[in-house]
Amino acid sequence: MLEGRAAPAAAATPAAKPPAAKGNFVLQIAAYTTSEDAQSRRAKLHQAGVTNAFVEQASIGGKQQYRLRVGPFPSREAAQAAQARLRTLGYDNGFIAAQ
């Protein structure tokens, strides 16, 4: 996770839902038109040590979207700190969203 804690062993399995952690803020990294693209990018984030990344499916204007998100975070400040770290990994277009 971005908070610097070691990831539990269960985090190695692919997840399509947000982790059970508590918090009201998430970072949306990108949105994709296919689940495969979103899951592939999530796997790359996991390899980079971002173990709290997940894909969330949404229907926008009648079209399916797959949102790549990181979190949740307990505060906007925690989300901003994670956003700064993600920028160092090349993810510059993310934004913070309240859940």
From TrEMBL:
SUPFAM superfamilies: Sporulation related repeat. It comes from the Bacteria. This is SPOR domain-containing protein. Residues 19-99 form the SPOR domain. Coiled coil: none annotated. InterPro entries: Cell_div_SPOR-domain, SPOR-like_dom, SPOR-like_sf. Pfam families: SPOR (PF05036). PROSITE patterns: SPOR.
